[in-house]
Design brief:
CATH architecture of one domain: Orthogonal Bundle
Radius of gyration: 26 Å
Strand order of the largest sheet: 1-2
Order of helices and strands: HEEHHHHH
Strand content: 5-15%
Number of strands: 2
Helix content: 55-70%
Largest sheet: 2 strands, antiparallel
Structural class: mainly alpha
Distance between the termini: 63 Å
CATH topology of one domain: Triger factor/SurA peptide-binding fold
CATH superfamily of one domain: Porin chaperone SurA, peptide-binding domain
Shape: globular
CATH class of one domain: Mainly Alpha
Oligomer: single chain
Number of helices: 6
């Protein structure tokens, strides 16, 4: 408790100094606003920068984050497989479907993990290599390059493979046909 008090004592003067610097007339390069008007600089960005290198959560599924990048990469994979250009409305609808699929996939992986089903990375890599063999003459590097070229990634496809294998194993364990 004593350390916390010392930390707050150090932070409070720094905060006061910062507030004083911000409030001082020389701290800003703007000219003062006329009486009764609000002066808003021309360069204000209300919603911030749309930096493509910043990954933002689109959905959180029991603590696992699905980012906009995850959705974009899976969408790119689907669009490349279909080789058509959807309308903006169709693309939005497809994007929502991809998000729902990623949520389902995440739940499937979580359920398999909760049931002590683990999918070794070697099994994922073998399946990935099999897909590469079927589509790229056994060349995973060519498939990696293709995925990146269309806006997807090897990690996106491997995540899908992991979800499918995990779900199949869970069903095999828990569903008995009669």
């Amino acid at each position: 408790m004593h350390k916390t008090s010392q930390t707050f004592r150090a932070i409070i003067p720094a905060g006061i100094a910062l507030a004083a610097a911000i409030a001082s007339p020389g701290a800003t390069a703007q000219s003062p606003a006329p009486q009764g008007e609000i002066s808003i600089p021309d360069s204000v960005q209300i919603f911030g920068n749309d930096n493509p290198n910043v990954r933002k959560a689109t959905a959180i599924v029991n603590g696992d984050i699905i980012t906009g990048t995850d959705v974009d990469q899976r969408l790119a994979l689907i669009l490349a497989a279909n080789q058509n250009t959807p309308t903006a409305e169709e693309r939005d609808r497809l994007r929502m479907q991809v998000l729902r699929n990623l949520i389902d996939e995440t739940l499937q992986i979580q359920e398999a993990k909760a049931s002590d089903i683990t999918i070794p990375d070697a099994e994922i890599d073998q399946t990935y290599a099999r897909v590469a063999a079927q589509n790229f003459n056994q060349n995973t590097e060519a498939m990696d390059a293709y995925l990146r070229r269309v806006g997807s990634s090897p990690a996106s496809l491997k995540r899908q493979i992991r979800g499918e294998i995990a779900w199949q194993q869970l069903l095999r364990r828990n569903v008995v046909p009669f």
